[in-house]
Amino acid sequence: MPTMPAGTLYRGKVGMWSWVLHRITGVAIFFFLLVHVLDTALVRVAPEAYNVVIATYQTPLIGVSELGLVAAILYHGFNGIRIALIDFWSKGAKYQNVMFWVVVGAAFVLFAAFAPRHLMHVFG
Amino acid sequence: MSVVIETPNSPRSKKQANWEKYGWIYMRVSGAALVVLILVHLISNLVVPEGGIKAINFAFVAGKWADPFWQWWDLAMLWLAMIHGTNGMRTIVNDYTEREGVRKTLVFTLWGVCAALVTLGTLVIFTFDPCPIGASLEALPSFCPAQ
Ligand code: HEM
User: Per the UniProt record, which residue ranges are transmembrane (chain A) (predicted)?
Assistant: First the structure.
Protein backbone atom coordinates (compact mmCIF):
# COMPACT_ATOMS: atom_id res chain seq x y z
CA MET A 1 0.00 0.00 0.00
CA PRO A 2 1.38 3.42 -0.92
CA THR A 3 1.34 5.84 1.94
CA MET A 4 -1.09 8.73 1.79
CA PRO A 5 0.60 11.62 -0.05
CA ALA A 6 0.47 14.92 1.78
CA GLY A 7 -1.37 17.92 0.41
CA THR A 8 -3.18 16.49 -2.61
CA LEU A 9 -6.14 18.49 -3.82
CA TYR A 10 -8.03 15.95 -5.87
CA ARG A 11 -7.66 12.69 -3.93
CA GLY A 12 -10.03 12.01 -1.04
CA LYS A 13 -12.18 14.28 1.08
CA VAL A 14 -13.74 17.56 -0.11
CA GLY A 15 -11.33 17.97 -3.04
CA MET A 16 -12.46 14.67 -4.56
CA TRP A 17 -16.14 14.62 -3.66
CA SER A 18 -16.66 18.19 -4.87
CA TRP A 19 -15.25 17.02 -8.22
CA VAL A 20 -17.47 13.91 -8.31
CA LEU A 21 -20.54 16.09 -7.69
CA HIS A 22 -19.35 18.62 -10.27
CA ARG A 23 -19.05 15.89 -12.88
CA ILE A 24 -22.45 14.30 -12.14
CA THR A 25 -24.27 17.66 -12.12
CA GLY A 26 -22.46 18.69 -15.34
CA VAL A 27 -23.68 15.57 -17.17
CA ALA A 28 -27.22 15.94 -15.84
CA ILE A 29 -27.45 19.59 -16.92
CA PHE A 30 -26.01 18.72 -20.34
CA PHE A 31 -28.72 16.16 -21.07
CA PHE A 32 -31.42 18.50 -19.82
CA LEU A 33 -30.08 21.22 -22.12
CA LEU A 34 -30.38 18.91 -25.17
CA VAL A 35 -34.05 18.31 -24.35
CA HIS A 36 -34.65 21.95 -23.49
CA VAL A 37 -33.37 23.25 -26.85
CA LEU A 38 -35.67 20.76 -28.59
CA ASP A 39 -38.80 21.59 -26.57
CA THR A 40 -38.20 25.32 -27.08
CA ALA A 41 -37.84 24.71 -30.84
CA LEU A 42 -41.52 23.72 -30.84
CA VAL A 43 -42.45 27.43 -30.77
CA ARG A 44 -41.39 27.34 -34.43
CA VAL A 45 -43.72 24.40 -35.17
CA ALA A 46 -47.01 25.63 -33.70
CA PRO A 47 -48.14 27.52 -30.58
CA GLU A 48 -50.38 24.56 -29.66
CA ALA A 49 -47.49 22.06 -30.00
CA TYR A 50 -45.33 24.14 -27.67
CA ASN A 51 -48.13 24.54 -25.13
CA VAL A 52 -48.87 20.82 -25.02
CA VAL A 53 -45.24 19.90 -24.32
CA ILE A 54 -44.58 22.73 -21.86
CA ALA A 55 -47.66 21.58 -19.92
CA THR A 56 -45.71 18.43 -18.96
CA TYR A 57 -43.15 20.69 -17.23
CA GLN A 58 -46.02 21.86 -15.03
CA THR A 59 -47.04 18.41 -13.76
CA PRO A 60 -46.20 17.47 -10.14
CA LEU A 61 -43.61 14.82 -11.06
CA ILE A 62 -41.58 16.97 -13.45
CA GLY A 63 -42.25 20.07 -11.36
CA VAL A 64 -40.52 18.44 -8.41
CA SER A 65 -37.67 17.17 -10.62
CA GLU A 66 -37.06 20.78 -11.63
CA LEU A 67 -35.97 21.42 -8.05
CA GLY A 68 -33.22 18.84 -8.60
CA LEU A 69 -32.21 20.60 -11.80
CA VAL A 70 -32.06 23.99 -10.09
CA ALA A 71 -30.02 22.51 -7.22
CA ALA A 72 -27.62 20.90 -9.72
CA ILE A 73 -27.16 24.19 -11.60
CA LEU A 74 -26.60 26.19 -8.40
CA TYR A 75 -23.97 23.72 -7.17
CA HIS A 76 -22.24 23.29 -10.54
CA GLY A 77 -22.20 27.03 -11.22
CA PHE A 78 -20.86 28.10 -7.83
CA ASN A 79 -18.39 25.22 -7.64
CA GLY A 80 -17.20 26.17 -11.14
CA ILE A 81 -16.28 29.59 -9.75
CA ARG A 82 -14.47 27.80 -6.92
CA ILE A 83 -12.49 25.72 -9.47
CA ALA A 84 -11.49 28.87 -11.36
CA LEU A 85 -10.42 30.52 -8.10
CA ILE A 86 -8.29 27.49 -7.17
CA ASP A 87 -6.61 27.80 -10.57
CA PHE A 88 -6.16 31.57 -10.83
CA TRP A 89 -6.09 32.97 -7.28
CA SER A 90 -2.75 32.62 -5.48
CA LYS A 91 -4.50 31.57 -2.24
CA GLY A 92 -7.10 29.45 -4.03
CA ALA A 93 -5.66 26.04 -3.19
CA LYS A 94 -5.19 27.05 0.45
CA TYR A 95 -8.84 28.02 0.83
CA GLN A 96 -10.40 25.34 -1.40
CA ASN A 97 -11.96 23.60 1.60
CA VAL A 98 -13.56 26.77 3.00
CA MET A 99 -14.66 27.75 -0.50
CA PHE A 100 -16.42 24.42 -0.90
CA TRP A 101 -18.59 25.14 2.12
CA VAL A 102 -19.25 28.67 0.87
CA VAL A 103 -20.41 27.09 -2.42
CA VAL A 104 -22.72 24.69 -0.60
CA GLY A 105 -24.02 27.48 1.66
CA ALA A 106 -24.71 29.89 -1.20
CA ALA A 107 -26.40 27.18 -3.25
CA PHE A 108 -28.50 26.19 -0.24
CA VAL A 109 -29.64 29.75 0.50
CA LEU A 110 -30.75 30.37 -3.09
CA PHE A 111 -32.37 26.94 -3.24
CA ALA A 112 -34.29 27.57 -0.02
CA ALA A 113 -35.53 30.88 -1.41
CA PHE A 114 -36.65 29.27 -4.67
CA ALA A 115 -38.10 25.89 -3.63
CA PRO A 116 -41.21 26.92 -1.63
CA ARG A 117 -42.30 29.41 -4.30
CA HIS A 118 -41.80 26.88 -7.06
CA LEU A 119 -43.68 24.14 -5.19
CA MET A 120 -46.55 26.56 -4.54
CA HIS A 121 -46.79 27.17 -8.27
CA VAL A 122 -46.54 23.49 -9.19
CA PHE A 123 -49.15 22.38 -6.64
CA GLY A 124 -51.21 25.58 -6.51
CA MET B 1 -4.96 1.48 -30.52
CA SER B 2 -5.18 2.50 -26.89
CA VAL B 3 -5.32 6.08 -25.66
CA VAL B 4 -1.88 7.64 -25.27
CA ILE B 5 -1.31 10.27 -22.60
CA GLU B 6 1.85 12.35 -22.81
CA THR B 7 3.87 12.49 -19.61
CA PRO B 8 2.94 15.78 -18.00
CA ASN B 9 6.51 16.62 -16.94
CA SER B 10 7.99 16.55 -20.45
CA PRO B 11 7.73 19.47 -22.90
CA ARG B 12 4.86 19.39 -25.37
CA SER B 13 5.90 17.27 -28.32
CA LYS B 14 3.64 18.81 -30.94
CA LYS B 15 4.23 22.27 -32.32
CA GLN B 16 0.54 23.04 -32.91
CA ALA B 17 -2.02 25.41 -31.49
CA ASN B 18 -2.59 24.38 -27.87
CA TRP B 19 -6.27 23.49 -28.19
CA GLU B 20 -6.41 21.76 -24.80
CA LYS B 21 -5.31 25.00 -23.16
CA TYR B 22 -7.88 27.10 -25.03
CA GLY B 23 -10.53 24.58 -24.05
CA TRP B 24 -9.43 24.78 -20.42
CA ILE B 25 -9.61 28.58 -20.46
CA TYR B 26 -12.97 28.47 -22.27
CA MET B 27 -14.50 26.29 -19.51
CA ARG B 28 -13.61 28.92 -16.92
CA VAL B 29 -14.54 32.04 -18.90
CA SER B 30 -17.81 30.65 -20.28
CA GLY B 31 -18.63 29.25 -16.83
CA ALA B 32 -18.36 32.68 -15.22
CA ALA B 33 -20.65 34.17 -17.90
CA LEU B 34 -23.10 31.28 -17.61
CA VAL B 35 -23.61 31.83 -13.88
CA VAL B 36 -25.06 35.29 -14.63
CA LEU B 37 -26.86 34.24 -17.82
CA ILE B 38 -28.55 31.21 -16.22
CA LEU B 39 -29.45 32.82 -12.87
CA VAL B 40 -31.19 35.72 -14.67
CA HIS B 41 -32.84 33.19 -17.03
CA LEU B 42 -34.28 31.24 -14.09
CA ILE B 43 -35.37 34.37 -12.22
CA SER B 44 -37.06 35.96 -15.25
CA ASN B 45 -38.85 32.75 -16.27
CA LEU B 46 -39.69 31.02 -12.98
CA VAL B 47 -39.63 33.63 -10.22
CA VAL B 48 -40.72 37.03 -11.60
CA PRO B 49 -43.87 36.04 -13.59
CA GLU B 50 -47.03 35.66 -11.55
CA GLY B 51 -47.68 31.91 -11.51
CA GLY B 52 -44.03 30.87 -12.06
CA ILE B 53 -43.70 27.76 -14.20
CA LYS B 54 -47.47 27.63 -14.69
CA ALA B 55 -47.30 30.96 -16.56
CA ILE B 56 -44.99 29.65 -19.28
CA ASN B 57 -46.62 29.13 -22.67
CA PHE B 58 -46.26 30.26 -26.28
CA ALA B 59 -47.55 33.76 -25.56
CA PHE B 60 -45.00 34.18 -22.76
CA VAL B 61 -42.11 33.22 -25.06
CA ALA B 62 -43.46 35.47 -27.81
CA GLY B 63 -43.57 38.35 -25.35
CA LYS B 64 -39.95 37.82 -24.34
CA TRP B 65 -38.59 37.43 -27.86
CA ALA B 66 -40.40 40.56 -29.00
CA ASP B 67 -37.44 42.24 -27.27
CA PRO B 68 -34.04 41.84 -29.01
CA PHE B 69 -32.44 41.95 -25.54
CA TRP B 70 -33.86 38.54 -24.64
CA GLN B 71 -33.14 37.17 -28.13
CA TRP B 72 -29.44 37.96 -27.68
CA TRP B 73 -29.47 36.86 -24.06
CA ASP B 74 -30.85 33.46 -25.04
CA LEU B 75 -28.49 33.22 -28.02
CA ALA B 76 -25.46 33.82 -25.80
CA MET B 77 -26.72 31.22 -23.33
CA LEU B 78 -27.36 28.70 -26.12
CA TRP B 79 -23.89 28.98 -27.67
CA LEU B 80 -21.89 29.25 -24.46
CA ALA B 81 -23.72 26.44 -22.65
CA MET B 82 -23.82 24.00 -25.58
CA ILE B 83 -20.10 24.38 -26.28
CA HIS B 84 -19.24 24.31 -22.55
CA GLY B 85 -21.35 21.20 -21.96
CA THR B 86 -20.08 19.42 -25.05
CA ASN B 87 -16.47 20.17 -24.21
CA GLY B 88 -17.06 18.96 -20.65
CA MET B 89 -18.58 15.73 -21.98
CA ARG B 90 -15.52 15.38 -24.23
CA THR B 91 -13.29 15.50 -21.15
CA ILE B 92 -15.36 12.78 -19.53
CA VAL B 93 -15.24 10.62 -22.68
CA ASN B 94 -11.46 11.08 -22.79
CA ASP B 95 -11.26 9.96 -19.15
CA TYR B 96 -13.30 6.78 -19.39
CA THR B 97 -12.83 5.34 -22.90
CA GLU B 98 -10.21 2.64 -23.34
CA ARG B 99 -10.14 2.29 -27.11
CA GLU B 100 -9.23 5.08 -29.49
CA GLY B 101 -11.96 4.16 -32.00
CA VAL B 102 -14.67 4.35 -29.35
CA ARG B 103 -13.30 7.65 -28.04
CA LYS B 104 -13.15 9.22 -31.52
CA THR B 105 -16.68 8.07 -32.37
CA LEU B 106 -18.14 9.46 -29.14
CA VAL B 107 -16.33 12.80 -29.41
CA PHE B 108 -17.37 13.11 -33.07
CA THR B 109 -20.99 12.39 -32.10
CA LEU B 110 -20.88 14.95 -29.28
CA TRP B 111 -19.73 17.78 -31.57
CA GLY B 112 -22.22 16.70 -34.25
CA VAL B 113 -25.12 16.93 -31.79
CA CYS B 114 -23.75 20.24 -30.51
CA ALA B 115 -23.55 21.76 -34.01
CA ALA B 116 -27.06 20.54 -34.86
CA LEU B 117 -28.68 21.94 -31.71
CA VAL B 118 -26.81 25.25 -31.82
CA THR B 119 -27.93 25.70 -35.45
CA LEU B 120 -31.52 24.73 -34.65
CA GLY B 121 -31.69 26.98 -31.58
CA THR B 122 -30.19 29.95 -33.42
CA LEU B 123 -32.67 29.58 -36.29
CA VAL B 124 -35.57 29.29 -33.82
CA ILE B 125 -34.59 32.49 -32.00
CA PHE B 126 -34.21 34.58 -35.15
CA THR B 127 -36.92 33.16 -37.45
CA PHE B 128 -39.52 33.08 -34.69
CA ASP B 129 -43.00 34.36 -35.67
CA PRO B 130 -45.05 35.51 -32.63
CA CYS B 131 -48.30 35.63 -34.64
CA PRO B 132 -48.31 32.63 -37.01
CA ILE B 133 -51.22 32.51 -39.47
CA GLY B 134 -53.80 29.84 -38.68
CA ALA B 135 -52.97 29.45 -35.00
CA SER B 136 -55.86 29.51 -32.55
CA LEU B 137 -56.24 33.06 -31.22
CA GLU B 138 -56.19 32.12 -27.51
CA ALA B 139 -52.69 30.64 -27.89
CA LEU B 140 -51.26 33.89 -29.27
CA PRO B 141 -49.91 36.92 -27.38
CA SER B 142 -52.33 39.82 -26.96
CA PHE B 143 -50.36 42.09 -29.31
CA CYS B 144 -51.16 39.91 -32.36
CA PRO B 145 -53.73 41.43 -34.79
CA ALA B 146 -57.04 39.59 -35.02
CA GLN B 147 -56.97 37.21 -37.98
C1 HEM C 1 -23.66 27.88 -14.38
C2 HEM C 1 -22.45 28.21 -14.75
C3 HEM C 1 -21.36 27.16 -14.97
C4 HEM C 1 -20.09 27.23 -14.47
C5 HEM C 1 -19.51 28.34 -13.58
C6 HEM C 1 -19.37 26.05 -14.91
C7 HEM C 1 -18.03 25.79 -14.63
C8 HEM C 1 -17.36 24.65 -15.00
C9 HEM C 1 -15.95 24.39 -14.79
C10 HEM C 1 -14.95 25.37 -14.16
C11 HEM C 1 -15.70 23.13 -15.22
C12 HEM C 1 -14.37 22.39 -15.13
C13 HEM C 1 -13.63 22.40 -16.43
C14 HEM C 1 -12.24 21.81 -16.30
O15 HEM C 1 -11.90 21.25 -15.26
O16 HEM C 1 -11.48 21.98 -17.26
C17 HEM C 1 -16.94 22.59 -15.73
C18 HEM C 1 -17.10 21.33 -16.25
C19 HEM C 1 -18.25 20.86 -16.85
N20 HEM C 1 -19.43 21.56 -17.05
FE21 HEM C 1 -19.81 23.40 -16.36
N22 HEM C 1 -20.21 25.29 -15.67
C23 HEM C 1 -21.44 25.94 -15.76
C24 HEM C 1 -22.55 25.53 -16.48
C25 HEM C 1 -22.66 24.32 -17.16
C26 HEM C 1 -23.78 23.93 -18.01
C27 HEM C 1 -25.02 24.78 -18.30
C28 HEM C 1 -23.50 22.67 -18.45
C29 HEM C 1 -24.32 21.78 -19.38
C30 HEM C 1 -24.73 22.18 -20.55
C31 HEM C 1 -22.22 22.27 -17.90
C32 HEM C 1 -21.60 21.05 -18.12
C33 HEM C 1 -20.32 20.73 -17.70
C34 HEM C 1 -19.71 19.44 -17.91
C35 HEM C 1 -20.33 18.22 -18.58
C36 HEM C 1 -18.39 19.52 -17.37
C37 HEM C 1 -17.33 18.42 -17.32
C38 HEM C 1 -17.24 17.87 -15.93
C39 HEM C 1 -15.96 17.09 -15.70
O40 HEM C 1 -15.04 17.13 -16.53
O41 HEM C 1 -15.90 16.45 -14.67
N42 HEM C 1 -21.74 23.29 -17.12
N43 HEM C 1 -17.94 23.53 -15.59
Answer: 20-38, 50-78, 98-115
Q: Check CB contact under 8 Å for B54 and A124.
A: yes
- pLDDT one-digit tens code per residue, A61-82: 999 999 999 999 999 999 999 9
Q: Which of A29, A37, A57 sits opposite B53 (nearest CB)?
A: A57
ipTM value:
0.91
Q: Report the b/e string of A25-43 with b at 16+ CB within 10 A.
A: bbbebbebbeebbeebbbb
Given a contact cutoff of 8 angstroms between Cβ atoms, the answer to whether B100 and A16 are in contact is: no
Q: Give me the phi and psi of A106, to 5 degrees please.
A: -65, -45
A62's CB contacts (< 8 A; 6+ apart) are A56
B63 CB under 6 A from ligand 1?
Answer: no
Q: Does the Cβ of B35 fall within 6 Å of ligand 1?
A: yes
Q: Domain map of chain A by residue range?
A: 32-123
For chain B (147 residues), the mean pLDDT of every run of 10, in chain order, is 71 78 97 98 96 95 96 98 98 96 98 98 96 87 82
Count helices and strands in chain A by DSSP H and E runs: 4, 0
CB B34 near ligand 1, within 6 Å: yes
pTM of the model: 0.91
